[in-house]
Amino acid sequence: MDSWQYNSGKLPGKVPISMKAVLQHMLLGLLSLAVSNVLAVEKITIQLDFAPDIEEGRTTFGVCARCHLPEAWGNADGTYPQLAGQHINVLMKQLLNIRNGTRHSSLMFPFVQQRTIGGYQELSNVVAYISTLPMNPDHGKGPWPKGTPEYDEGAKLYKDNCTDCHGEHGEGMAEKFYPRIEGQHYEYVVRQFEWIRDGKRRNANPDMVKQIKNFTDEEMKMVINWVSHVEVNPKDLAPSVDYQNPDYN
């Protein structure tokens, strides 16, 4: 298992952001016990501290930009998620989970290996860089706008089931690795919700699995539809849909 946490601090680089990344790499040690032929599993925790270098992350992001686009906006059809605006802790956890196989992604797996993107320092660099990118002001949204019965039902479902972890409007919780889902593409969130509910996504939070296990497909779509129509804070958005990442323009 891999885990990563982020604490604030000083960061080198030209981008005006302060952060200190603390990487905790969790290793599993398998120790054989002679008694009763029992295999005991002991968890070894190693803490490695890295100060992310955004300038280096800018370069490393070229690997990611091939699919997630230079702006890290992904695709409205949900093939690739929007990474811009996501919490650093969440990005790092997902990269590590894909790298070690806890989360299955045949598309991502080759690109998060050390031979492709580098070690933990490089991962720290690239998630720090992604955190500086503005979000898509026109992300993929669900089919039911405000004022429809489905929108209203989705709002109720969200309030009753999602706010404790994802916040009042889908802002997430960085320190607990709860992702920001406001501004994320509707189709992508639908797919992930379904996989978590149905047990296909192995790194899902057990509390979420329990919370949504009885959702019908229609309820799933309505609650995610509501989140997709939440207005994202303008300060987190790019100035227009025509925005191009100047680092890759």
Task: Describe this structure as you would to a colleague.
This protein has 249 residues and is of the alpha+beta class. The chain has two domains: 128 residues, Cytochrome Bc1 Complex, Chain D, domain 2; 83 residues, Cytochrome c-like domain (Cytochrome Bc1 Complex, Chain D, domain 2, Orthogonal Bundle), CATH 1.10.760. Helices cover 36% and strands 12% of the residues. The protein contains nine helices and three strands. A three-stranded antiparallel beta sheet has the order 1-2-3. A hairpin with a 6-residue loop joins strand 2 and strand 3. Helix 5 crosses helix 9. The longest helix has 15 residues. It starts with a strand and ends in a 21-residue tail after the last helix. The N terminus is likely disordered.
